[in-house]
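Q: Hi! First time doing this. I have a protein sequence and I read that you can turn it into a structure. Is that right? Here it is:
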Amino acid sequence: MVSSTHPVRILIIDDDEDDFILTSGFINSIEDRTFDIQWCYNYKTALEHLASKKFHLYFVDYRLGAKTGIDLLAEAMKMNCEEPIILLTGKGNSAIDKQAMQMGAVDYLIKSELTPEKLERCIRYALERSASTKALRANERKYRNIFEKSKEAVFTTDLSLVFKDVNEAMVNLVGTDKNQLIKHTLYQFIDNENIRASIRSKLEKTGEVNDLELEVISSKGKRRNCILYLSTELDSANNHYVQGILHDITNQKKTERATLLAEKLAATGRLVRTLAHEVRNPLSNIHMSLEQLSTMSSGEERVYIDIIDRNGKRINDLITELLTSSKPTEMVFERIVLQTAVDETIGIALDRLTLKQIKLKVNYPEYPCYIRADKEKLKIALLNIIINAIEAIENIKGELIISLVQNEENYSLDISDNGCGIPQENLSKLFEPYFTSKRNGIGLGLASTLNIVQAHNASIEVKSKVNVGTSFIITFNQA
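A: Yes, that's right. Below is the predicted 3D structure, encoded as structure tokens:
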């Protein structure tokens, strides 16, 4: 709104100077306001003035030589002119009146009916409306900017959750072009029927969904852990729509899992060291006693002493293995080519692959992928995964696929098999020490693998379906 202490800058666009003088005279006679009135009689110059945005208000004559005020109004709308435009005409014409108002004019006045009072009301209304419109547009731009640039996936839908508008974060989350996404529903990216039913029920009963944790599946099959917020709203035409936010917590979940596993490893390590100390003390006494007995015994007694000695050593070796698995892995890092480490690991496991007639597929980039790693320790971690994959494959149609791809700032190594898969309830326990589903296993292989991977500042993720197969994805930082 123009301050009452400042003059209102008005441009009168009219090719008749007499009409300009008459109109400006009426305006200047308005009390309690001052005006800075200028005249323009040329259509092209008028467009330049409109583009400059130097005036608060425009009076435009319908007749402008070969052009009309309607033509000028159309050009002004193309230039996103936000200042009010009032159309003037010598004779009333309802068709022109309606057309002008539909195109964005704030008023339509007949010159022969002009009075200072009518112009005062017209100018006051036009300026008030302009101020309100500008405020609304400014708010719209502000909230549109927040919507578009938000790091959260923000969207609006109809009541069936068919997308109406989405921001860039939503496009990135589901991996679908914005124009294509508008044709989809939110339900198409949620494969859990119980979750879909819960969303429908909550929207019908309360019109809201709050803090609902779910998995969103992108168009490329990637799963992301998200928190969903939905609320039913009314638009300006009193039509219902749904606005929503998807908060991606995938990285947070990974961090929580990694922290929990690290805590479990640390707790297990403390327990193992305590037990080792308590067991080794009496074990040392047993060995010392055996040494004394061995000098005094012979014949049949010697056989039993040897049995006790061998089993005592076996217990000692087992304690050493447990202690080694519970200690943080000491690393000697150097810049290596990841493909070389993987190839050497495959070489170690090649006999097993051949004996089980497992088909091996390896997909690498054509360029070397450099990482900082302890090569020998890394090979131990990779070998544990590959051996587990080989053991999970039970038929001659078995296949092991090892793929390496480069992302923006890291490398992703995917080791996938088409074996028996891992039950969902076991996935969360997979890297816990002493957890195993093998008959003769002790559950230290993958615990050791996790220890090594974390020491490399890398992350590991497991995806598996029973009777379909398993994928281990290790993400390394580039060097």
